[in-house]
Design goal:
Length: 229
C-alpha cells in the first residue's frame, strides 16, 4: 500500500484574507515526484506555504509528513519543518560562513548537539549532492549550480520524507538546471523522498516528465491527463 506523505482534503487556501484556491484535494505518496505549475498569483506559492506551515490551513483537512497542518501551533511548526526539506530559488545561504558552517547552523537550529554526528551528517549530505570536498568553500566561491546543490544538501539534513522545491532551477542555465533535476529525481527514486517542485519551466518538465499539478482559476488541477501546452 502506498504511503501518503501529503494528504489534503477539501481545503480552501488563503493568502491573507483572500481565498486563492478552493476545494483542494491532493495526495502525494512516498518517493513521488510532482510538478506544481501555474501563473504567478494563482495560489502556487500559497499552497506550498500552507504545506510547510507558513500559512495556516483554516478550512479543510491536511496531513503533511505525518503532521496535521490544520492543528499546527507555533510549538509544532518547527517539528513539521524538521520532517521537510525546502529548496529555494535564491539559495538563501548564509554568505558569511562556509558550506559546512551553513549546514551546521541548520542542524543546531533543529536541535542537533553532538559535534561528531553533525560532521558525519554534513559529509553524508554533501556526498549525496556531489560536493564531497567542497565543505570548506564560501558560497561566493561557488557557481550557481553548486550553491543550489548546497541548498539541496541542506534540505536533506534531517532525512526528510518530503522536499518542497520552489523554482529550484529558476536562476540556473539550462545545463546546470539539468544537473539539479537529475539530482532531485535521484533523491526521490533512491531515498524514497517525495518531492513537490513549483516551476515555470516547461522545458524542464518536458525533459524530465512527471505528474503535473496546475493552479488555475482558483482550482488545483491534477493534470497528469492534461496535455502540456
Amino acid at each position: 500500500m502506498a504511503e501518503a506523505i501529503i494528504e489534503i482534503r477539501n481545503a480552501n487556501i488563503y493568502q491573507g484574507d483572500s481565498q486563492v484556491l478552493s476545494n483542494v484535494n491532493l495526495t502525494v505518496n512516498k518517493g513521488e515526484f510532482v510538478y506544481l505549475v501555474g501563473k504567478t498569483g494563482t495560489g502556487k506559492s500559497s499552497l506550498l506555504k500552507t504545506m510547510y506551515g507558513e500559512l495556516p490551513l483554516r478550512e479543510g483537512d491536511g496531513e503533511v509528513a505525518g503532521y496535521n497542518i490544520r492543528q499546527l501551533t507555533w510549538k509544532t511548526v518547527p517539528y513539521l519543518r524538521r520532517s521537510l526539506g525546502v529548496v529555494f530559488q535564491d539559495f538563501q545561504l548564509l554568505t558569511d560562513r562556509n558550506v559546512n558552517e551553513n549546514l551546521k547552523f541548520v542542524l543546531r537550529a533543529t536541535g542537533w548537539k553532538d559535534e561528531k554526528l553533525m560532521n558525519e551528517k554534513i559529509a553524508d549530505v554533501l556526498d549525496k549532492v556531489g560536493l564531497k570536498s567542497k565543505g570548506f568553500k564560501m558560497p561566493f566561491e561557488m557557481s550557481g549550480g553548486e550553491q543550489q546543490r548546497v541548498d539541496v544538501a541542506r534540505a536533506l539534513l534531517n532525512s526528510p520524507k518530503l522536499i518542497l522545491a520552489d523554482e529550484p532551477t529558476g536562476n540556473l542555465d539550462p545545463e546546470t538546471s539539468d544537473e539539479i533535476m537529475q539530482l532531485l529525481f535521484h533523491i526521490s527514486r533512491d531515498y524514497g523522498t517525495a518531492i513537490v517542485m513549483a516551476t515555470h519551466d516547461y522545458i524542464v518538465i518536458n525533459k524530465f516528465p512527471a505528474r503535473v499539478l496546475r493552479t488555475e482559476h482558483g482550482q488545483l488541477l491534477d493534470n497528469s491527463s492534461i496535455a502540456m501546452h
